[in-house]
Amino acid sequence: MPSSHDFSLFQRILLATDGTVTDLIALYAGEPIRVKKLGQTIHEEVAQAELKCTKPTRLLNRKILLSGAAKNYLYADSLFVVERLSKSIQEQMFHTDQPIGLLWKEERLETFREVVRQTVEPCAAIAQYFDLPTSAPFVSRTYLIHHVGKPLGSITEKWPLSYFRSL
Questions:
Q1: What residue segments make up the domains of the chain, in order of their start?
Q2: Alpha helices in the chain (DSSP H)
Q3: How far apart are CA 33 and CA 23, in angstroms?
Q4: Are 111 and 147 in contact (CB under 8 A)?
Q5: Cβ atoms within 10 Å of 164's Cβ, excluding its own
Q6: Whole-angstrom distance, CA of residue 164 vs CA of residue 167
Q7: What letter would DSSP give residue 50?
Q8: Of 91, 145, 90, 141, the residue nearest 118 (C-alpha)
Q9: What is the DSSP letter of 93?
Q10: Could you say which of 42, 64, 165, 167 would form a disulfide bridge with 10 (CB–CB 3.0 to 4.6 Å)?
Q11: CATH number for the domain formed by residue range(s) 4-160
């Protein structure tokens, strides 16, 4: 990964924040940001070790874009342990396009975010959403969301390295 000197101030903020990136991007872009849900599935399996599930459990995988009026700003792929989410949040995640951070904020859920990975690499599978060639580099960060001592899930956020260069 490039040194922090290769990132703009705002890119470093996005990499380090433990807050809601939707709000940060809206401030940066000067426009409202909405969620475009690309896909969502529920399946039962043993989760990745960092989610601390010892047996097969229901997992919600959600893929979204954070978008402005004419531009996609960020792609996110999340995996949540369904039984650890409140019924209200489960319903809203299943049936709305609300950002998860906003749902937690509205429920006043106390969470802790732990960044576990940061990379810069091409992401051919999502380059089309940003009108970029498949070889374009993307900044990526993965973090765990903890609540009352257990991980609720993990979120991987990706954006083109060429985005958010000013500031």
A1: 4-160
A2: 9-16, 21-29, 87-95, 100-107, 124-127
A3: 8
A4: yes
A5: 23
A6: 8
A7: G
A8: 141
A9: H
A10: 167
A11: 3.40.1410.10
- pLDDT single digits (tens) 78-101: 999 988 888 988 888 888 877 777
Residues contacting residue 87 through CB under 8 Å, at least 6 positions apart:
none
- Do residues 155 and 103 lie in contact, with contact meaning Cβ atoms separated by under 8 Å? no
Q: For residue 89, give every residue at least 6 positions away whose Cβ sits within 8 Å of its Cβ, in sequence order, or none.
A: 100, 103, 104, 107, 109
Share of the chain above pLDDT 90, in %: 53
Report whether 72 contacts 34 (CB < 8 A).
no
Per the CB < 8 A criterion, the answer to whether 72 and 129 are in contact is yes
| Lowest-confidence pick of 13-17, 31-35, 130-134, 141-145 | 13-17
Instruction: Map tokens 């899930």 to a residue.
Output: 153
What's the rounded Cα separation, in Å, for the pair 67 and 35?
A: 6
Whether the CB-CB separation of 104 and 88 falls below 8 Å is answered with no
Give the bridge partners for 147, in sequence order.
150
Q: Determine whether 59 is exposed, middle or buried from the number of CB atoms within 10 Å of its CB (0-12, 13-18, 19+).
A: buried
